[in-house]
Amino acid sequence: MDSDEFRRRGKEMVDYIADYITNISARRVTPEVEPGYLRPMLPKNAPDEPEPWDDIMKDVETAIMPGITHWQHPRFHAYFPAGNSYPSILGEMLSAGLGIVGFSWAASPACTELETVMLDWLGRMMALPKVFLPFDINRDYKDSDDDETNSDSESYELSDVDKDDTVDGTVEDGLMMNGKKSRHKASECVLVAMLCARAKKVASQRLIDPHIEDGQLLSKLVAYTSKLAHSCVEKAGLIAVIKVRQLYVDDHYSLRGKTLEESIKADKEKGLIPFFVSGTLGTTSCCSYDNLEEIGEICRREQLWFHVDGAYAGSAFICEEFRYLMKGIHYADSYNTNPNKWLLINFDCSCFWVRDKFALVNAMSVDPLYLQHKHAQKAVDYRHWGVALSRRFRALKLWFTIRNYGVTGLRHYVREHCRLAKVFEGLLRKDHRFEIVGDVTLGLVCFRLIGSNKLSQKLLLSLNDSGKIHMVPSMVNDIYIIRFAVCSKDATDDDMRVAFDIIQSHANDVIQEYKA
Ligand code: PLP
To answer: What is the pLDDT of residue 154?
Structure first.
C-alpha cells in the first residue's frame, strides 16, 4: 500500500467505523458463534502473494464481525463501560501513524512530556491529594481556587497527612516538577504497587536482620485486600509470590479497619510480616467502597503500603458531588484509575500515581547502556516506572479527548450515566419481584429476582442467550447478583426502558417456568 492508496483506504476506514458506530443497534449484541468458528473460514497458511484491500475488508464483514461482541451497543450492560469516542479514536490513529516507541524521554520527548502533563490535568480534574500533583502546590491551589468552573477548593484542602509530607521531604525539588505518575493496565498498576511495597519492606527488614535469606523473607510477607477486590490483586500476589488475604466486607460491601486490624494482628502473632493493602473505590462486583480512612490510619500506623484501585469509579471524581466517595484517599501511597473505562478514552489507558517516586524507581529500574541518554538526570524515563519497556503514545488520545469534550463535557457524560442508573433503578423498584443489592452510587445497578440464587441465574442465562442484551453476574456475600452497567456513550432514558422491558419479559417466563 503506498501513500496514495493509504489516503483512500484510510478515508474509507473512517467511514466504515462511523457507519459501524451509527448503525450498531441493528446488530445482535453478542455473537452466536462457537469456539473455533474462525479457523475453518481462513486459509491454513498466510498468503504468499499480496491480496487486494477490498478482499480483506470483505472478510472483515464475513469472518470477523460475526465473532464480535459489540461493546458500544446500547444493550451492552456487562462489566464496566469500554470507553470510546471519536477524538480518542483519532488519537490512536495519530499514535499509530507516528509509530514511535516512547520508553525513555529521549525516545520521543513529546510522548513522555505530554503524558506527564495529562496525568497532572487528570489529577487536578479528579481532585487527587497534592502528593500526587506537581511540586508547585501553591500555584496549583491558587489555580483551582481562582477557577470558577472548577469547584475543587474543598477537596484540595491540606489534610494532616499531606502537611506532614510537605515537611518530611518526600517532595523533592526538580523531580517533583515531573510529577509522580505512570500508566499501565489497572492490573499492572496493582502489581507494580505490590512490587514497590515488597522492595521497600524487604529493604527495611534487611536493616533489622541483615542475614535473612530472600526466600525466607518473602515467605513471611502478607498483603491484604477485600473479597470483593478485583481478581488482579490475587494475580499480583501469584506473580510476586506473596500471600494475599481476601478479607470479609461489611453489610455495605466495604472493607473495614477492624477486619483488617484483626487479620494483621493474627498474622503478626504467627511471625508473618504485613506490608501491603489494596483497597478499592468502586468494586467490580457491585461498585462498593472500602473505608479508606479506617484502612489508611492502620496502614500509617503499621507502616504498610496502601494502594487504592479506582479503576472505574475514579472517573466520577471529576464531578464534585461524587468526591465524598473518595474520603480518606490522602492516605494512599499509590492510586490508579482507568480513563479507558469511564472517561471516553479507548483501551488501553490506565493511570497510576505514586507518593514515593523513589520507591517505584528503585523497585523497577534496570539500566543497560543502549537505553541511557544524556538527559537522564533531568528527564523522566517511564521505562523505570513499570514492567514493560516499550510504551505507546497513549497521552495523545487523552489530550484530544479532554480538549475536544472539555472538562464540562466529560462531567456531563459521567453525570448522565449516573442519572440513567437511577432511572433504571426506579424501574426495577416498581416491580416487586426484583430487589436492588447495594447502593446505586454511580452507573452500576446490581439486582436480582427475590428468591433463590438459581432463579436469578436462570434469568441472566435466558437474557444473555437471547442476544438482545448482555450483562454479567457477580457474587456478593454469597448472594448472586446481576450487574447492569450503563455503558453506551450516548445512552438515553429510552434505552433504560427498553432494557427493563426485555428483563421484565424474560423474568415473566423464568418465574412461570420455575413455578411449573
Ligand atoms: N480493578 C477494578 C476495580 C476493575 O473493575 C478492573 C476491571 O474491570 C480492574 C482492576 C482490571 O483492569 P485492567 O483490565 O485495566 O487490568
So the answer is: 38
Asked if 344 and 400 touch (Cβ cutoff 8 Å), the reply is no
Q: Is the CB of 397 under 6 A from ligand 1?
A: no
What is the model's pLDDT at position 166?
29
**Is the CB of 224 within 6 Å of ligand 1?**
no
Of the candidate CATH numbers 3.40.50.300, 3.40.640.10, 3.40.50.720, 2.40.37.10, the domain formed by 100-392 belongs to 3.40.640.10
Q: What is the pLDDT of residues 280-292, one digit of tens each?
A: 999 999 999 999 9
For the beta carbon of residue 297, count every other beta carbon within 10 angstroms. Answer: 17
What is the whole-number distance in angstroms between the Cα of residue 44 and the centre of ligand 1? 36
pLDDT digits (tens, 9 = 90+) for 139-165: 443 333 333 333 343 343 333 334 333
Cβ(336) – ligand 1 distance below 6 Å: no
Mutating to test ligand 1, I would choose from 182, 239, 312, 487 the residue with most ligand atoms within 8 A of its C-beta, which is: 312
Task: Establish whether residue 338 lines the binding site of ligand 1, counting it when its CB lies within 6 angstroms of any ligand atom.
Answer: yes
Q: Find where cell 500515581 sits.
A: 353
Nearest protein CA to atom 12 of ligand 1, as residue: 186
- Strand 221-226, strand 273-280: pairing: parallel
- Residues near 89 by Cβ (< 8 Å), separated by ≥ 6? 17, 346, 397
Q: Minimal CA–CA distance to 95: which of 350, 349, 402?
A: 349
Confidence band (pLDDT; 50, 70, 90) for 183? low
Identity of the amino acid at 307: H
Residue 292 is predicted with a pLDDT of 98
- Nearest Cα to Cα of residue 487 among 414, 425, 435: 414
Alpha carbon separation from 40 to 45, 64, 161, 332, 366 (Å, rounded) = 12, 13, 61, 51, 45
**pLDDT greater than 70 at residue 192:** yes
422 Cα: distance to centroid of ligand 1 (angstroms):
23
8 A C-beta contact, residue 189 and residue 350: yes
What spacing in Å lies between the alpha carbon of 187 and ligand 1's midpoint? 6
Cα 484 to ligand 1 centroid, rounded to whole Å? 17
Is the Cβ atom of 230 under 6 angstroms away from ligand 1? yes
* Residue 187 near ligand 1, beta carbon < 6 Å: yes
- The verdict on the CB of residue 88 being under 6 Å from ligand 1 is no
pLDDT at 175: 28
Model confidence over 441-481: pLDDT tens digits?
A: 999 999 999 999 999 999 999 999 999 999 999 999 899 99
The reply to whether ligand 1 has any atom less than 6 angstroms from the CB of 80 is yes
Whose CA is closest to 503, among 81, 69, 77? 77
Domain ranges of the chain: 100-392
Cα distance between residue 196 and residue 330, in whole Å: 19
If one counts every other C-beta atom within 10 angstroms of the C-beta of residue 322, the result is 19
